[in-house]
Design a protein that fits this description.
2 copies of one chain form a homodimer.
Chain A (H helix, E strand, L loop, with lengths): L1 H12 L5 H7 L9 E2 L5 E6 L6 E5 L5 E5 L2 E5 L2 E3 L1 E2 L4 E5 L6 E9 L2 E3 L7 E4 L2 E8 L3 H4 L9 E9 L4 E9 L12 E5 L8 H4 L3 H10 L7 E4 L31 H16 L9 E6 L1 H12 L6 E5 L17 H11 L3 E7 L5 H14 L4 E5 L5 H11 L6
Parallel strand pairs in A: 15-16, 15-17, 17-18, 18-19, 19-20
Antiparallel strand pairs in A: 1-2, 2-8, 3-6, 3-9, 4-5, 7-8, 9-10, 9-12, 11-12, 13-14, 14-16
Helix pairs in contact in A: 6-7, 7-8
Chain lengths: 398, 398
């Protein structure tokens, strides 16, 4: 009876802790959640025999209004799951546009993750479940059977911050086996983000792999630094340990990051085979990273030929004393006079920064400064930022 | 009133989805969970005003017996949280030995993750919350203020599997800025694991960074391949998409991985500055990876000078037809005759493989084959495998 002896051994080999694993092996229904159907509807399932209500919330549902002391904001909507046999609740969505989506369950009022979905992404201080609906732009965010670049987490010394800092670097397929020099895109995250944001939620490596394979994007290195000068690295990746992340409001938009940004450029140009010239440097960022990209490209007005502002956090009322934010008009003028290939601005129609960004465009108009303006549906979301990266990347270094 | 206008804007900048983030900003208690105290007790908190019972289970609690159709197994124990003010339940552990631990909550019978802990690790098909208790070996698993190596996720072509395969590679601090050649440790995961396992739960990069900084470990490259030949990459990292992971039982211990292992060695030796000689090659693995290490080092009996078997899955009853498993005694004898520096075997006293590993040791004894045997408390757990790596690494390449 070799079988009888070997099977439990093989099962035990599966892992050392294995509570959930053992549960699913040794009883309980095999639940699939989420299940993406061919018609682009998605079924979510949650086993909760004794629950009174099970709801789901996520960015695939129509937004709702939320009242706060600061006014009304759009937040992701909610939907009720229906109780079925065996205590398994389920909900099937409308057909969804191809994309990557996030969600959470709410069981009797408690927010919880999906125990049947191992694909979770941290966004700022929260962890969400994610899924991809293919057949459109979601395919761009998926790992396909194409040559893959390398993603490295590396540390460099920033003299300006007197700090070892962590950076995520994508090198394109073939980088390691050529003598070629490559252009570089510096890709900056938003407030609360870090050097993991563009890889995790931004799907940078998938987007680049796929667009390079399609011949639409010039093979390039993508550098994703940490834009919070108070941090050495993402939460959990620094000597601060496994602390509860905070929103990183201090020292994020006070000029220090812009001032010390040449540290990361120098590190990259000294350590990678790159074309270290303005026409082969791009900088783009989302929200706070758009703010950073605006100011870095202006403060060093002869450094970047490609600038991308994604839902840029342009805050005209902000009063911060920093040499970086002095003489904004003069340095913008210098940037314009020095010339550049592309100044790309993307904003969603319902973004709370819509007016600020359009006011900034009016300012650029009044200066006679060239730019490309792209307006999309939606607001201040990763859905838009992935689209902006996918739209901008093919325009770089051409 | 600049303040009034800017604050909500800054809050909105934090992220695009932000349900949880908005909740914690706009009301609700600020819960810290887990909270590791100076005396090494840990308090866990969970907000559930309407729950009847909240429990916690994890590997920091004494094990319990679980009855299955295959017999009785040790599983992590459970403890009750007590309901306090504001509907926040809490539990404080006994003082814990310094280590990295995993846990989940059980709310009215439902397993759930900790919404206040962003540090989650996937183990096979489940996601757990983790925390570290410092002041001992947990310090070795923590990011410290020391020089850090680089961790790269890279793809290589395996002719033997006719497949692009993903591999995780740790290069030690200074690798990129020297002309030095380095020794290589091939570090193999267990059943259900993949090329992420040793980095995520094994804390390989932290252990290596810290032991190298202490001068206890020779700077080395650590290669963590994917040992499931049916997979190109970890779940979610291959063209199979975001599928529900299965246990990967087929084609994991059928000889194919061992047969095609030279593909990854060739890739590393052609692409990294390594000392491509037997005395600078080590191979070690946990559970199924221990099985693989045993058979790879024996089947290529003049390739590795250092072999590490961590809770190795030695299954004498297994009947698999593969050239790899023929003539086991003869190839072991050849390995012995060719010589090696270290054959290291680690096993926990309560590991279900204890007898198998000790029977294997008796076999080695009968052959007169030298080995180092280390017996620890505990069973088939990551707690032991991190200790085994920390114990073996200082012995390599000396």
């Amino acid at each position: 009876m070799v079988f009888k002896k070997v099977i439990p051994m093989l099962l035990m080999l599966i892992n050392g802790l294995g509570i959930f694993a053992q549960q699913s092996l040794w009883g309980g229904p095999q639940i699939v959640s989420p299940e993406v159907h061919d018609n682009h509807t998605v079924t979510f399932r949650f086993q909760a025999p004794d629950a009174d209500t099970v709801m789901i919330t996520g960015d695939f549902l129509p937004t709702e209004k939320m009242n706060t002391q600061w006014g009304e904001f759009d937040v992701p909507g909610k939907a009720h799951l229906q109780k079925g046999d065996n205590g398994v609740w389920s909900f099937t969505s409308e057909p969804l546009e191809s994309d990557l989506y996030s969600y959470s369950f709410i069981v009797d009022g408690l927010y919880t993750t999906d125990p049947n979905n191992v694909y979770k992404i941290r966004d700022v201080a929260s962890v969400f479940d994610v899924f991809i609906v293919g057949g459109g732009k979601g395919d761009l965010y998926s790992v396909k059977d194409v040559p893959h670049g390398t993603v490295a987490r590396r540390w460099y010394y920033s003299p300006g911050n007197n700090m070892q800092r962590r950076v995520t670097i994508y090198t394109p397929p073939g980088y390691e086996n050529s003598r070629k020099k490559y252009p570089v895109l510096y890709l900056l995250h938003g407030m609360g983000g870090d050097e993991e944001a563009w890889i995790a939620l931004g799907r940078t490596s998938q987007i680049l792999d796929n667009l390079i394979a399609q011949g639409k994007v010039e093979p390039m290195i993508v550098v994703m630094p940490n834009g919070n000068v108070a941090q050495q690295a993402a939460p959990g990746e620094s000597p601060k340990g496994l602390y509860k992340p905070t929103m990183q409001l201090p020292h994020t938009m006070d000029g220090k990051y812009e001032e010390t940004f040449p540290d990361v450029i120098k590190f990259i140009e000294n350590n990678y085979r790159v074309k270290a010239k303005k026409e082969y440097r791009a900088i783009a960022g989302l929200s706070m990273g758009g703010f950073h990209s605006l100011h870095i490209s202006r403060y060093y007005p002869n450094t970047f030929d490609y600038i991308g502002l994604f839902s840029a956090a342009i805050l005209p009322d902000q009063k911060v004393e920093s040499v970086v934010y002095e003489n904004i008009d003069e340095t913008l003028k210098a940037q314009m006079d020095n010339g550049y290939e592309l100044y790309w601005i993307g904003i969603g129609k319902t973004d709370f920064l819509y007016k600020n960004v359009n006011d900034y465009c009016a300012k650029l108009d009044s200066m006679g400064m060239n730019y490309t303006y792209v307006e999309t549906e939606g607001g201040h979301t990763w859905t838009n930022w992935r689209v902006y990266l996918s739209t901008l990347a093919p325009l770089l270094f051409k």
